[in-house]
């Protein structure tokens, strides 16, 4: 467990004013220890840092994609391979941007769930997601069982 700086702790209190009270209501699976304030604070800090990082990366990737789209005809001769290569590059950059947007959305949703006091509850079953699962993947919104059912469909 890492020590949280005073500045970070202040930011946490601003983002999550009821965290000390809400953490007591965060569910855990049978056999797991209850959430501690420090554990949830560490996850919240991780999510807030990820959000900031993803927003920066998304701005840069959006700018790069805009440049690719704006200059898509520049430098490409009449060769079909050049057109194909340019199209592939644009497609890859678009996929990267979309994946980043999805990850940012998941991160923001997890932050919202912590702030609302609903973190750790499966959105399908209403049962605990599991502390170990959330520590491994803080953006999880489904229990292992609900996720397995979703993937089978």
TrEMBL record:
Gene3D superfamilies: DksA, coiled-coil domain. It comes from the Bacteria. Pfam families: zf-dskA_traR (PF01258). Keywords: Coiled coil, Metal-binding, Zinc, Zinc-finger. Transmembrane segments: none annotated. A zinc finger (dksA C4-type) spans 122-146. SUPFAM superfamilies: DnaK suppressor protein DksA, alpha-hairpin domain, Glucocorticoid receptor-like (DNA-binding domain). Residues 117-152 form the Zinc finger DksA/TraR C4-type domain. The keyword Zinc-finger applies. The keyword Hydrolase does not apply. Residues 37-71 form a coiled coil. PANTHER family: RNA POLYMERASE-BINDING TRANSCRIPTION FACTOR DKSA, RNA POLYMERASE-BINDING TRANSCRIPTION FACTOR DKSA-RELATED. This is TraR/DksA family transcriptional regulator. It comes from Myceligenerans indicum.
